[in-house]
């Protein structure tokens, strides 16, 4: 396992710096001419092919922080490879991926049958990889001192808009209108919440929807009567200004999302695996894509935990590395 000196709060800044450094190195190489490039190769004494080029990655905002970490560390070893992370949501990412526009699609849910069909129609063959576990976190404002736990049934009523005020749930709670903040409909987090909590029924009409989890964080943090939900990492990053709500599991236990409860499965049913999907053609024809995926699987466990998610058991990463090797 590599020893990474990585801070989650600096992902985006570091990525920009890595990109700038890569561009600078490229400019220097062009300025010095081909002889300089030959000298560099000779000095390294390495027979390994130098990686360069771009990797098109888009999809889930939940998986985004993990893959941003992967791209940052990968750039440190391969500065001539550009692998920026797009955040258009799981659904938006699959739309691009199944059209052949991206090499990798990050997803907080498995690919849907209709998305599989589009991929097949467009001749896109792909492989699914799991990268970490997440605990979908329900949060309220820090000043909310009345909600101490919620059941899945409570969540369903709240998000279908059946109670309009907090006092409609419990007469001892404030007679104030509930404000709702939810991921947008292109988000895999929305899809998961829709399946597990809403049962496919429409979300409350006056909910604020956004593909940007930071918008949701600010919305809940700035309104005492707000409730929202998003990935575990975004809660951890903002726990000083948010209050997480324990969820009653199937055993009747009110459980908060933590690394331990997510990994052990006691924080249920809101724990879930996270994925990324890779175009098989890209794996075979673009060496930088193959090496990027290999690097991700080798280091995702540590990087996922550094940005606030929960690693898979090591044997799952090992098994997926074997799958990857068979696709080369």
Task: Describe the structure using short key phrases.
328 residues; alpha/beta; D-Maltodextrin-Binding Protein, domain 2; 2 domains
Fraction in helix: 40-55%
Gap between N and C termini, in Å?
A: 23 Å
- Classify the fold: give the CATH topology of the largest domain: D-Maltodextrin-Binding Protein, domain 2
Beta content: 15-25%
In the CATH scheme, the class of the largest domain would be Alpha Beta
The CATH homologous superfamily name of the largest domain equals Periplasmic binding protein-like II
Poorly predicted runs of 5 or more residues: 5-47
Counting DSSP H or I runs of 4 or more residues, the number of helices is 13
Radius of gyration: 22 Å
Architecture (CATH level 2) name of the largest domain: 3-Layer(aba) Sandwich
Order of helices and strands: HHEEHEHEHEEHEHEHEHEEEHEHHH
Largest sheet strand order: 8-7-9-6-10
Shape: elongated
User: What can be said about the biggest beta sheet?
Assistant: 5 strands, mixed
């Amino acid at each position: 396992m590599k020893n990474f000196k990585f801070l989650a709060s600096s992902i985006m800044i570091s990525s920009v710096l890595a990109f700038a450094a890569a561009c600078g190195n490229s400019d220097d190489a062009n300025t010095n001419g081909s002889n300089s490039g030959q000298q560099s190769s000779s000095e390294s004494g390495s027979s390994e092919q130098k990686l360069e080029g771009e990797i098109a990655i888009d999809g889930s905002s939940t998986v985004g922080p993990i893959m941003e970490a992967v791209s940052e560390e990968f750039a440190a070893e391969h500065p001539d490879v550009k692998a920026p992370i797009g955040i258009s949501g799981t659904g938006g990412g699959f739309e691009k991926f199944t059209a052949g526009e991206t090499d990798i699609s990050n997803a907080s849910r498995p690919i849907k049958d209709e998305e599989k069909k589009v991929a097949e129609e467009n001749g896109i063959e792909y492989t699914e990889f799991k990268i970490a576990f997440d605990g979908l976190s329900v949060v309220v404002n820090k000043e909310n001192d009345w909600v101490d736990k919620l059941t899945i049934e409570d969540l369903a009523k709240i998000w279908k808009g059946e109670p309009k005020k907090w006092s409609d749930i419990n007469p001892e709670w404030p007679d104030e209108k509930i404000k709702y903040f939810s991921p947008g409909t292109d988000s895999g987090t929305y899809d998961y919440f829709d399946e597990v909590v809403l049962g496919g029924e429409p979300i409350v009409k006056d909910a604020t929807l956004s593909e940007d989890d930071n918008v949701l964080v600010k919305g809940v943090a700035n309104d005492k009567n707000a409730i929202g939900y998003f990935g575990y990492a975004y809660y951890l990053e903002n726990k000083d200004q948010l209050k997480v709500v324990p969820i009653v599991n199937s055993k009747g236990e009110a459980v908060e999302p933590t690394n331990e409860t997510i990994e052990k499965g006691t924080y249920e049913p809101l724990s879930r695996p996270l994925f990324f999907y890779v175009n098989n053609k890209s794996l075979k024809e673009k060496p930088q894509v193959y090496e990027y995926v290999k690097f991700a699987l080798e280091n995702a466990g540590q990087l996922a935990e550094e940005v606030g998610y929960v690693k898979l058991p090591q044997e799952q990463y090992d098994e997926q590395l074997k799958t990857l090797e068979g696709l080369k």
